[in-house]
Amino acid sequence: MTHRISILGSTGSVGGSTLAVVDAFSDRLDVVAMAAGSNVERFAEQVRRYKPELVSVRTADDAKTLAALLSGQKVEIHWGDEGNIAVAEHDDAETVVAAIVGAAGTPPVHAALLKGKRVSIANKEVLVAAGDVMTAAARAHGGEILPIDSEHCAVHQAIRCGDHGEVERIILTASGGPFLRRDPETFAAITIADALAHPTWKMGNKISIDSATMMNKGLEVIEAHHLFAMPAEKIDIIVHPQSIVHSMVEYIDGSIMAQLSTTDMKFPVQYAVLYPERARAPFARLDLAAIRTLDFLEIDHDRFPAVSLAYEACRTGGSMPAVLNAANEIAVARFLAGEIPFVAIVETVRRVMERHAREVTPVKTVEDAVLWDAWARNAARETVVASSATAGRG
Q1: What is the pLDDT of residues 292-327, one digit of tens each?
Q2: 383: alpha, beta or left, given left = phi > 0 and alpha = psi -120 to 50?
Q3: Which of 54, 311, 329, 351 fits as disulfide partner to 76, beta carbons 3.0 to 4.6 Å?
Q4: Is 3-147 CATH 3.40.50.720?
């Protein structure tokens, strides 16, 4: 029986892994709708190959370009936020793979859940900014949220070994990124190329920078809080440089269940789109004898202060996680544009959170999340200028 899916963010790294899974299970998976950003030529190639009924791109001009590239192919073309929502709501889609980077994924994910669809989510920012809204929508309309992040996919598998009340803690593993052993005194000299050079995973630019600051791990704490209904106090992080153990769950009897696989996003994608069934995968397997050792280290919060900020946001709740996420997105974008030094990324987030501390409010709707997202972005742009000037004087 064919399972029909929509893909939000098909030209990104997770989107590419999703299509590789579709290729591997072409007799069981059918792509009915797709959305992409500005890589229109690559997207046109995907549309020609997978023949979805409906597609969306970023702008009206991109839609015109795509229509010209697809001349003769029958396909409905949309654009912008409304186009992403149309992809997410497609009547035939049973599962929506949400791989759009950043807060832009929030409205279409919410729309899919309101339609009672399963959302296989790789966009952690959606749950960080509006986790309460998303989980409430899933409960009320019969939707389901399954994680594609390798860490949360690992937890999802390990947590099936017992009852929720038997879980002592969730243990998220972190590679430590490219600066695990770099002298912190040299962090001010970190270049964009340095920060993008992840030691174990091949990812997009934004998430690679988040891995370098370890903000990604902090965001994953908030995501795990919503996905598994666990307080921050029961979610720990441990550094595991090999990235083989993707995460663990400890039970009250002291047993620890771990999920291991190669560092390939196709594994969690396959799990999320075929769940609850397991199917024989044609991808490379893990060779434990070749690995020989697995290392685990305590996280250094002084080296990676972003993690502490994320725990603070999770405990505070309300609008603070949305502010944390939005400020980080702007700071990372500015760093990638060469406008601020690496060390200013986390400092920007810290200052924006301090400004927001007295204004924290509940996030009850997508509109609430969008409002605070916009506020934090503006605040981060202002703070980035001050941080950059300060760094320049130093």
Answers
A1: 899 999 999 999 999 999 999 999 999 999 999 999
A2: alpha
A3: 54
A4: yes
